[in-house]
Prior knowledge:
By secondary structure, this protein is mainly β.
Amino acid sequence: MTLTSIASDTLHGFMPPADPASGKITAAAAEYYTLNGTLCTATFKIKEDAAYGEYQIGLTDVILADDDKPFDVDVTAGKVTVSAAGADDLENGYSVFMDSDKTVAAGADVDVAVGIAGQGEGFDKYTNYEMTFTYDAEKLQFKGVTGLSEGDEVKAEETAGTITVCKYGTEQISSATGTAFTLQFTAKGSGSAAVKCTGAGIGNKGTIEAGDEITAHLLDDTTVITVAAPEEYAVSISTGDFDAEVTGAGTATAGQDYTFTVSDPYYDYTFAATVGGVTVTPSGPDENGAYTIPGSAVSGPISITLTEMTPKTYTVSVKNADGETVQPSTVDVALPEGVPTYKTDYAFTVSKAEGYVYAVSAKIGDEAVTLEPVENEETHTVTYTIAGADIKGDVVITVVKTEAQDVTVEFEGTGKEKVVGGTIKTAKEGQDFSFTVTQDTEHYDYSVTAARGDESVPVTAGENGAYTIAAAYITAGETPITVTVNETRNYHLQVLGSEYVKMDDSVGVLVRVTGALFEGEDIVWDSIAGGEASNEAWHFSWSTAETYKAGFEGDVDGVWCRVLFAGDSGSINSSVDYWKRYHIKVSTGNQALDYNYNVNLSEGGVDTNDAQLVWNMYNATYDQVPVNTDQVMQTKFLLADTNQDMVLNVLDSSAIVNYIINGQ
């Protein structure tokens, strides 16, 4: 309502209204001339957008006096009724009218009243209705319907921006000033949003069966809700010296909940928070680790500071094989002092009784956790540790204790007879099983594997042919563990080459081979490839030459040597590789070389002819070493290295001369 004028013929010295816009009128009179009658008249105009209903106009702070003596005044309030329409606007039957337009902030709740008016005989009351409404679902969220009479049966359904409200039951008065019910919404987006009645059927028969309701007139079918964008406030979050991550939006919206989360929910956190400088206490955490400052408190800038974080603690219980919670000692478990705590390793022990096996597991919630066992062989206790990072709930330890059973272990393979103690053994469930294989590692390689049915069983090798299968794999069952021991002959041959003597157009290469052989076995050189056949293989043993063993590892029985010729010194490696791959074999027969300076193998013994022959060799008189026709020539080339330094040169001739001069 708007004040338009104040008129009076009886008041003198009347002051005009001080602040009509505030809804208050202040007036004063210096004197009056009547005891009974109208002092003044205030005239109002009803605003066009006024909501339908009753509005009160009252008098306050009235002071009347006679001869400056005040006396009591009875103040009677008056009411002004604003109707949905004048009588001339209503049509016979029922009419539906919507609430006046409204302006709200985003995030705020807003009510939209719906009224039912009746015109004509029989339409002054109603018992049932069915109405449909549409609304802007992007800007409004439907909450529900209120204001219905007790005893009504009501159905309110909402789908995709459409609301259907049905009622039957108690009798209501059809009034242009009343409210039949109220639709409730929450504003969630800025801009204009219309709530519109698209159809209404109303009756007075206590039923809403089809055909019984009367179609109502839509006198005012739309309420426009203007959603103003809410104010935004800055948010600052500090974790201080704590190693934590707190996440939240950089701004908060006035009137809306502000939520922030912590990255690790397994701590208890304490926060100090203020809104506009006023201390508030965030609620939480919820099941997702989120904390909330309620929207009713969001009215200014927000400051959040982490002041304390403490790892969460949990309970621990022990269960037996039947899933019953028991005292730890009944299944030989000892728990530490204190309780499981997040980020702190938790260790408990199991004292293994002789003749029993233990299956130990643990869960946190519904998730199995990894246990790290460490056994003390002296005390027969096993310590199990749960990593602190896994402790995120109550701990349940399960121990299944049973009598140990015998487990059969059978041996097979080419080396099974080398197993000490026979090829069938008995292991004890839950205990390590060890066995020994007598090995000749100089001449054989050994492989040891194990399986149980189709499942592989790990075998750990120790020293001197000892092997162990861990207790975890020695479990009860009818299927035996099968251990396969294979023994394979391996000659462990090593081949090296070096420049032995320099010729005019080629290089004489000394090829050396070492390896451990059985008695009667020897390294032999097969014939040179190229189609020429030979009935003889070349066997040269340098077993008495210690210097020729240089560069070889391990205990060797001898060094087998041969001289061959390569195109140049750069071809040495390829020549050695060629002989290694194609011409080195193991056979029988051995020709040991006697380094006695008799290079030409003459019956007369050592003389200057031996020195001359060696001189001819290193001065390239010979350009090859016959392989298939002159075994002696190959032998002489080897014997020419009289000082056994693996190089044929002048020092070897000098050694013969010195031998002759000294009369040896």
